Amino acid sequence: ALLGLALCAVSGAAFLYRDYCVIGAGPAGLQAAYFLQRAGRDYIVFERSHAPGSFFALYPRHRKLISINKQYTGKSNSEFNLRHDWNSLLSHDRRLLFRHYSRDFFPNADTMVRYLEDFASLLKLRVQYNTAIIHVTLEKNEQAWNGHYFLLTDQDRKNYKCSCLLVAAGTWVPNVVNFPGSEYVEGYETVSINPEDFAGQTVLILGRGNSAFETAENILGVTNFIHMVSRSRVRLSWATHYVGDLRAINNGLLDTYQLKSLDGLLEGDLEDLAIVKDKKGKLHITLRFYLENRNVSAGIDSITLPQDELDNFATRAPYDRVIRCLGWKFDFSIYNRSLKMMPGKGNVKKYPQIKPSYESKGTRGLFVLGTASHSVDFRKSAGGFIHGFRYTTRAVHRLLENRHHGVPWPSTVYPITQLTNSIIKRVNEASGLYQMFSVLADIILLRENATAFEYLEEYPIGVLAELEMQTGRKAHSGLFVIIMEYGRNFSGADKDVFYYNRAVGEAQHAWQSNFLHPVIYYYKSLPTEREMRQRPPEWPVPRPAAIHHIVEDFLTDWTAPNAHILPLRRFLENCLGTDLRHFFAESCFLFAFTHQKLPPSCQQGYMRMQGLVGSRELRHHAVQAGLLQDYTPTDSGGDRPPDSHDGSEEQLMTDHGIPVRPLQHLVNAKDE
């Protein structure tokens, strides 16, 4: 605590020191602050606005979120219900569930602002508002956690110093495409949201994401027509299974386009466009190469337009307004070159380059959280959204706890007899596995001789090879990896996800499952870095020694005894070379005399004088199911009650020609 309050004098400047600095008090920054505070760590959050969640104070412009807020699931399990609550942050306080703030399935963004304010205040998170970090650099120091300190400067030239930097500033810089005439384009961030301002107008929208369709949806009923142009074809979220693609709530323009109501979609490279304004203020679309060696300001009459050569050119009608809705990108400007914060390549160039552990590729100790970390799973999972990064933020916290404070990744040790039950429980209720499918995985580390196992929840699968170093846990005797996955060929912009035989219902065809379902991978040893790099395309992990798909389920309820549990148990038994069934005491008693090795349930239960006491009803059920032979005498023997089991073990032994010996003597003999 004293260290956290210390002012460090460096090169004549005073630095307020904290172990952890968090940039941004949006959802990811507040989630990180919560975990740091619960762990008792020294931290501070810097927020440039006067309140948390400043992004949601402005966006989405038309105020309706596309993150679902499902009030009812038919279940009371809070972990399961988070699968269908895309807005709540993780905390111990039940008051801070988003369903207490709104009953709307798609809530208003103002409600999110209020929720984040309450999250920060009720949990007393240490957020410093009205503090815009304008410069970040490094100071080399061998005594620092990562070999350097991070030096931060705010808008008032105040200086801060920290050992670990968590960047949760989001992506908030608008994407802008520059082309001749782009000065006539209005931005999504400033365009009017009053539909009456567009009455009787013809509008061109640049972009094809949710912000573009959200804007179109708002003015659909008052415009002459709307055209939308983008480089790529429309990607429907129900086809791609990616929540960042076009959602049904915004896709009204697709109806009016395909049902011949004047609106339309076009594909084209925006950098090839040019806009020319005529004397009446109308905006004409042309192509850049028509303007080469031309003076745009000379007037439209002197400029060749596409319709001059192709009289049915699609965008030949002039527009009243052109609106840019191209999304946002990360702000790289505040980071000194020493941090090597570089943009990604290709379709992730709007995000900084990070490892699957969410640590910067260029600087140790710098982690990117929240939306800006989405390069790890862009267009694959939910890491760019609250219902995804609340779990990846927790994963980063656990990695840091192990690295800097010697606190191993949380785990639970169970006897091997609980292996099947543990997996079934998690795949049926775990929200992190469900939301961050193909990215976060449960890891089961087997103990020696497979008598017990250690269960780790929601580990980033991209750093599986580093598991021992990152978690402080050992994987000497093999491991299982549990991941939720869609079918390999079931997601894509061009996929028909409604075809007739799209679902698989039989366990023997589980590997062909299309919808989200659990997949269990078995490895005899921890995969290496090389194996991770050389894994098959679209595989989250390398090829295992064995693999098992639990067949998809229409209710996402994987508890069917024959379709789900039995095939899983047999898979686990084949991997371990053991019998994971649970046996009645009578069966264990018989096995003790007829087998050299007892099943684990007998070793860990019956032979230790443990287990449930039988009853008449339980015995009758077992006999009816064929699990036990009926040794109940047909003659009750005078005063002996019909349901008495005295002498049943003796009867069992006599039937098998085994001399009767006291049970305690048997237990002692086994111990010897």
UniProtKB/TrEMBL annotation:
InterPro entries in UniProt: Auxin_biosynth/cation_transpt, FAD/NAD-bd_sf
Pfam families xrefs: Pyr_redox_3
An individual GO BP term: ERAD pathway
Keywords: Endoplasmic reticulum, FAD, Flavoprotein, Glycoprotein, Oxidoreductase, Signal
The UniProt record lists the keyword tRNA processing: no
One annotated Gene Ontology cellular component of this protein: endoplasmic reticulum lumen
A Gene Ontology molecular function term of the record: monooxygenase activity
Gene3D superfamilies: FAD/NAD(P)-binding domain
Biased composition (Basic and acidic residues): 637-648
Annotated region (Disordered), positions in chain: 629-672
Cofactor: FAD
Family to which the UniProt record says this protein belongs: Belongs to the FOXRED2 family.
Function statement: Probable flavoprotein which may function in endoplasmic reticulum associated degradation (ERAD). May bind non-native proteins in the endoplasmic reticulum and target them to the ubiquitination machinery for subsequent degradation.
Subunit note: Interacts with SEL1L. May interact with OS9 and DNAJC10. Interacts with TXNDC16.
UniProt protein name: FAD-dependent oxidoreductase domain-containing protein 2
Organism: Sitta europaea
Gene: Foxred2
